[in-house]
C-alpha cells in the first residue's frame, strides 16, 4: 500500500482568517489543498468561485485540488484552470458531457478528475477511465462538511480500484466525506490513496498532529 496523500478541505476553515488557515495546513504537512466549489443548484450550499482559487494560488504553492459541485460545469472549466487549479473534478451526475469536460480540463492545463456521488454506481466511470487521472469517491452526499461516513461506499472504492488498475495507468483514487482516523484505514485498504478531510483537520486544535494522524491511520 502507498502512503495516502492528505488533502485538508478549506470548507471547514475559519473563512475570516482563510489566508492564515491555508498557510497553517501548508506548513503542517498537507499534500494538497482541497477546494469545495458549490453553486446552490447542484448542491444545496454555496461557496467560492475562480477568484477565490486565484487568491489561494497566491497564498500557497501546494497543488490546489478543486472539487466542482456545480452544474453545468463546462462554462467554468477554463476559468478555474486559469485561476491556478492544479486538479479539477467534475461530477458525473448533472453534467451530460463529462467525457468532453475531462478533455477540456486537460487542454486547459489542469489534471482531470471525476467525482462520484454515493448513489451513483461505479460503472458510470467505465467509459471515462481513459480520459481521467483522478477519481473522487464521495463517502457523504456532497454539500456540507461534518457528515457521517457512508459505509456502503467501501465496496465502490474496491471496484473503482480494480477498474483503475486495469487501465495500466496511474490513477489516484481520493475519498471525500467523513474521513477521520477510524475511516481512513478502511478506505485505504479498499484502494484509496488520497484522503480529503475537513472536520478531521480544521476541527482539531493541532493541524500538524491531525494531518499526521490521518496519514498514519491510513497506513495501519
Ligand atoms: C462535501 C465536501 C467535502 C467536505 C468534507 O460536500 O466535498 O470536501 O469538506 O468534510 P468532512 O471531512 O468534514 O466530511
Ligand atoms: Zn470535496
From TrEMBL:
Required cofactor(s): Co(2+); Zn(2+); Mn(2+); a divalent metal cation
Family according to the record: Belongs to the ribulose-phosphate 3-epimerase family.
Cofactor binding, per record: Binds 1 divalent metal cation per subunit.
UniProt-annotated binding residues for a divalent metal cation: 34, 36, 67, 176
Binding of substrate, residues: 9, 67, 143-146, 176-178
This protein's name: Ribulose-phosphate 3-epimerase
Pathway where this protein functions: Carbohydrate degradation
Catalytic reactions on record: D-ribulose 5-phosphate = D-xylulose 5-phosphate
Enzyme Commission number, as recorded: 5.1.3.1
Function of the molecule: Catalyzes the reversible epimerization of D-ribulose 5-phosphate to D-xylulose 5-phosphate.
Taxonomic source organism: Sorlinia euscelidii
UniProt KW keywords: Carbohydrate metabolism, Isomerase, Metal-binding
Annotated active site: 36, 176
